[in-house]
Amino acid sequence: MNIVKIVYGQDRGGIYSCETQYLQFLKEKGVHITLVIVGKGDSVETYKSLADQTIQLENVGVRFEGGLIKRFQLLYNAYAFGRRNVNEVFNVINAAEVDAVIYRREAYMFLGSFIAKKLKTSCYWHMANSINNSSSRLLHKVLSRVLEITPIANSIYTSQTFGKGCELVVYPGFNDERLIQNSSNDQLALGIDPTKPIYGMIARVCNEKAQDLLVEGFVHSQAAEEGAYLLLAGNYSDKGFFEKIRQKAGKLWGSQVIYLGLLEEVASFYNTIDVAINSRRNAEPFGISIAEALFMKKPVISYYKGGPEEMIQHGENGWLVYEISSEAYEMAFNQSFNDKNKWTEMGIRSFEKSHKFNSKVNVEKLLKIISKQY
């Protein structure tokens, strides 16, 4: 099988994790991958190492946001980008037959469609985010039909935000190999009391992820009063927001609220914590860190909207938060703390739920979709 994937040279976070693990598993399946890399950035060299053939393009610089007029301007820019580059891509591809063109970012819809039509093959949009308003929904429905693009949602929630015409769901998934590589169950060396409950969140530190509300809720919780710890892992770029988190933690900063920075050894993080957390100010389209935590047999506290509702049953393998407030997270900490004697049992249920979110399972599903077997 031969596929063309369009990626962004500055990918990071969830999209980057998904793209790299999918590329790895596709190669292991013997799929020939031509990678069209848009723009330069930190992800370029890794992407190149995972492809059989690469084509480097200029950065389109389009993000579909803002008012209606601005969106139509961005739409034209994306169209012009596709027209400008389709022949370059077509002329470089050596494969006699390409089975699919796949992209994730909306800005590549025209390029993806134009390439697919030139190659007389199918084009798939593996959605990275949900659709948040009716005008965007209508726009994407029309464009998908006109450009002959098949949307594939990254969760049932995302599928529902698109509506009719987006019945296929392929989860971004998690890579179990990076979690089971640490077979010794090593934990992070933090010098904390191992007899106290340890909560932890691993994610980019930013306003969208709501670590400020999480920390404020923790500080006022029964868990904190009883000496529990909250570990925060992930990088940050907004110094003002990071300082806000420090202020919310108050005297607990550095003692019970501990910032770990960017972590590469995620297995050790999950081995260290008792309960995983995924706080948000908005819907979580999927939630890779939640899927990882399930695989590592951890109960999870999470804001409910989006993918988390598929992964977590309240009181069974975690606790869902239904409001965007520090008080709601405080309540979740209290509920989880009072359920301490159930954590092991809840962790087993988490592991049982994790299989369908494994990247290998979802790569298999994607290949069946491309082969018209699904």
Structure, explained:
This is Glycosyl transferase family 1 domain-containing protein. InterPro entries: Glyco_trans_1, Glycosyltransferase_grp1. Residues 190-347 form the Glycosyl transferase family domain. GO terms for molecular function: glycosyltransferase activity. The structure is a single chain. This protein has 374 residues and is α/β, with parallel strands linked by helices. It folds into two domains: 2-173 and 358-370, Rossmann fold, CATH 3.40.50.2000; 183-355, Rossmann fold (3-Layer(aba) Sandwich), CATH 3.40.50. It is built from 16 helices and twelve strands. It has helices spanning 13-28, 44-49, 68-92, 109-119, 134-146, 156-162, 177-180, 211-219, 222-225, 239-249, 266-272, 288-295, 308-311, 326-338, 343-354, 359-370, and strands at 2-8, 32-38, 53-57, 100-103, 122-126, 149-152, 198-202, 229-233, 257-261, 275-278, 300-303, 318-321. Strands 3-2-1-4-5-6 form a six-stranded parallel beta sheet, sandwiched between helices. A six-stranded parallel beta sheet has the order 9-8-7-10-11-12, with helices on both faces. Helix 2 (44-49) links the parallel strand 2 and strand 3 (53-57). Helix 3 packs parallel to helix 4 and helix 8 (211-219) packs parallel to helix 10. The mean pLDDT is 93.
